[in-house]
């Protein structure tokens, strides 16, 4: 707008308008589902989100930090663990499992809890090959990492396909798809009736349980 009247022009917000993504927390399982959108950076959004939650928690008097750790696809880490003919090294940083325990992880949990350990880095090596028995520590650690109770990648080194190989796994989250709740996620939740909201949330929870089965290997 000028003194003479209106004229064509362009404007841009500074800073630019924020892009939004919906985040669902399943507190009973300590799992978080994040809406996938191409408008957000694949890594920066996580850093900003963690900072927002951590600073808010600090302002409320909580001292613990907040971090999101990718839960890989089912059998992503275990499948890689089993794929080696001889596994000579496995490096992983574990976090104390809570709330889900299985017959593979209970003894490890009891050990960490008794020792007051919240985070534990393991660098297991054996030129003769680590045990891949389900009752041994390497398998329990790999299984625990696959459940999401880890920090960063899991590194495996060993013999596979007649050659020595080092690979990493665990940095990519499992991804699901729920078409029937797309409109709910994109904004209808602001006006949705209780029945509609409950149906959408049930669909999301069912998809989470499908990607990450609850208590699948519990005794």
Describe this structure in words.
The chain has 219 residues and is α+β, with helices and mostly antiparallel strands. It has two domains: 23-68 and 176-211, no CATH class; 76-169, no CATH class. Helices cover 30% and strands 18% of the residues. β1 (23-26) and β2 (31-34) form a beta hairpin. α2 runs antiparallel to α4 (137-146). The longest helix has 18 residues, at 194-211.
List keywords for this structure.
two-stranded antiparallel sheet; 6 helices; alpha+beta; 219 residues; single chain; elongated
Topology:
Elements: E1 23-26, E2 31-34, H1 44-59, H2 76-83, E3 86-95, H3 106-115, E4 119-125, H4 137-146, E5 154-160, E6 163-169, H5 182-185, H6 194-211
Antiparallel strand pairs: 1-2, 3-4, 3-5, 5-6
Overall geometry comes to elongated
Discrete helix count = 6
The low-confidence runs, each spanning 5 or more residues with pLDDT under 50, are none
Distance between the termini: 72 Å
Q: Helix amount, in percent? A: 25-40%
As laid out across the biggest beta sheet, the strand order is 4-3-5-6
Radius of gyration of CA atoms, rounded to a whole number: 22 Å
Secondary-structure element order, N to C: EEHHEHEHEEHH
The strand count comes to 6
Structural class: alpha+beta
Largest sheet: 4 strands, antiparallel
Mean pLDDT: 80
Count of individual domains? 2
Q: Which percent band covers the strand fraction? A: 15-25%
């Amino acid at each position: 707008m000028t003194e003479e009247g209106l004229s064509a022009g362009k404007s841009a917000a500074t800073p630019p308008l924020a892009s939004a993504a919906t985040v669902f927390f399943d507190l009973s399982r300590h799992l978080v589902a994040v809406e996938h959108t191409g408008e957000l950076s694949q890594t920066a959004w996580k850093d900003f989100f963690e900072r927002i939650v951590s600073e808010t928690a600090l302002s409320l008097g909580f001292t613990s930090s907040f971090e999101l750790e990718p839960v890989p696809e089912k059998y992503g880490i275990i499948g890689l663990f089993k794929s080696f003919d001889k596994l000579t090294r496995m490096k992983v940083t574990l976090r104390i499992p809570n709330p889900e325990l299985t017959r593979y992880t209970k003894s490890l949990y009891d050990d960490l809890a008794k020792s007051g350990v919240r985070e534990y880095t393991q660098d297991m090596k054996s030129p003769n090959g680590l045990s891949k028995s389900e009752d041994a520590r390497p398998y329990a650690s790999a299984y625990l990492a696959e459940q999401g109770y880890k920090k960063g990648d899991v590194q495996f080194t060993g013999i596979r396909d007649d050659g020595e190989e080092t690979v990493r796994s665990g940095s990519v989250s499992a991804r699901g798809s729920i078409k029937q709740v797309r409109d709910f996620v994109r904004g209808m939740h602001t006006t949705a009736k209780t029945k509609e909201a409950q149906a959408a949330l049930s669909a999301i929870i069912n998809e989470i349980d499908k990607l990450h089965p609850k208590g699948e290997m519990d005794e």
